[in-house]
Design brief:
mainly beta, two-stranded antiparallel ribbon
């Protein structure tokens, strides 16, 4: 049962709490590594995802992680993210979850937590969610956020913001030098996670945490954009 494990996790010292299991790998293709200094190790299907660790995919690799609140997070090739912070609300939701996207292509499908619990950041942007499916491409000097479902507020680090409210709404944040960035909005996305969906079976399926059912496959619906 999750509840006793949660109680035990809250009772352990802070150093042990840093390794709390907060999710699970459900799709792994080729090289998907957990990076925890000074070592790296391969992640396999069924392995736990831990707080304060970095997950990195290699070339021709992909992964889908399901958090305990049923957030589904898909990573394309050469992607890297860090699960910075999690504060449990109960055994099925977070009061606070922070995810830092370093580089690569991602699909983010929110779970059962309150929408203001999610904190998604890149080197250029902060991304707020409201019942959301987002495609995010983070590259050197640019972050692109494409709304597939729900709504999102995307802001630069200097608090210039755009609202994404319709499917296809896209925020593009571009570094201009000197720590500054511009942000613009379009409804004609130059990129989506669509091409990446086909790279691994189940990559764009959405499952509840600890659910052994096949899940809902969004490949045909969302990846067809």
């Amino acid at each position: 049962m999750i509840a006793p494990c949660l109680a035990a996790a809250l009772a352990v010292p802070p150093a042990a709490a840093q390794t709390s299991r907060i999710g699970e790998a459900v799709v792994i293709q080729n090289e998907v590594l957990r990076v925890a200094a000074p070592a790296t190790s391969q992640i396999n299907v069924g392995d736990g995802v831990l707080r304060n660790e970095t997950v990195r995919t290699g070339t021709d690799s992909a992964a889908r992680l399901v958090m305990i609140d049923s957030t589904n997070l898909s990573l394309g090739p050469n992607a890297s993210l860090t699960l910075d912070r999690t504060v449990f609300n109960d055994e099925h939701s977070y009061r606070d979850i922070a995810i830092r996207l370093a580089t690569g292509a991602f699909r983010f499908v929110t779970g059962h937590s309150e929408k203001n619990a999610y904190k998604i950041t890149t080197q250029l942007a902060t991304i707020g969610v409201r019942g959301t499916i987002l495609d995010i491409l983070n590259q050197r000097g640019q972050t692109m956020v494409v709304l597939q479902e729900g709504a999102s507020q995307v802001c630069t680090l200097s608090f210039q913001c755009v609202q994404l409210t319709q499917p296809g709404d896209t925020a593009i944040i571009t570094a201009t030098g000197g720590g500054k960035a511009t942000i613009r909005k379009t409804n004609t996305p130059p990129w989506t996670f669509a091409a990446t969906c086909a790279s691994a079976a189940g990559l764009c399926t959405v499952n509840d945490f600890a659910d052994n059912s096949p899940g809902v496959d969004y490949t045909g619906i969302l990846c067809g954009r």
